[in-house]
Design goal:
The chain is an alpha+beta fold. The chain is built from six helices and seven strands. The strands form two sheets. It has a five-stranded antiparallel β-sheet. The longest helix is centred in the middle third of the chain and has 23 residues.
């Protein structure tokens, strides 16, 4: 196995990196490249904020961010807890570049999304209490690329049909299940 660190953020598109290859702490070259690229083009404070979410439980849902926002939007989803969670628990990583003309392509946004997912997964550990969550990440452009999660309530109650590989592939979506045993890839990009 090649142990040479590979940059995960580059303004040029690169061959796809498997979602199971999250950067490890000892991949100093990868983290150094990521930090250098982000400092050139991203408001680093915003990325740090995104990677350290405020999580809370509301109406049997795990929510990310602002309690007042969750409360204001909850009634729009009726009994659909999954839809509500997928709505309040999502971001668009491309927004981190805020119109920067040198913003990276989808491959780099995928790499940033994997870092966000890993950070969110760690933050979710104290509130899981025996549950698992599904993470969805993807999009066809930097602008529509999103990362979201919701509690796993069974295969028939998911934000997107995780059994429809053709749909997930055509939508550019990757899916992971996370519980106390770790992150498991259900569908790769």
């Amino acid at each position: 196995m090649d142990k040479t660190p590979k940059p995960i953020l580059d303004r040029r598109e690169k061959p796809r990196r498997s979602s199971s290859q999250l950067p490890r702490e000892n991949d100093f070259g990868v983290w150094r490249q990521l930090r250098t690229e982000l400092m050139d083009s991203v408001q680093i404070a915003r990325l740090v904020e995104v990677c350290h979410p405020q999580l809370f439980e509301f109406d049997d849902c795990i929510c990310l961010g602002d309690h007042d926002n969750a409360k204001a939007n909850r009634s729009s989803f009726g009994a659909d807890r999954t839809g509500f969670e997928a709505f309040v628990n999502h971001i668009h990583p491309g927004d981190l570049w805020e119109g920067d003309p040198g913003a990276p392509g989808v491959e780099s946004v995928r790499s940033v999304s994997m870092i966000i997912i890993a950070s969110w997964a760690i933050a979710l550990l104290p509130v899981l209490r025996g549950r698992s969550v599904l993470f969805f990440s993807g999009g066809s452009t930097v602008e529509d690329f999103a990362v979201r999660f919701h509690v796993d309530r069974g295969s028939s109650d998911t934000w997107a049909d995780i059994s429809d590989a053709a749909f997930l592939t055509s939508s550019g979506l990757a899916v992971w299940r996370f519980d106390v045993n770790g992150l498991k890839t259900l569908h790769d990009w």
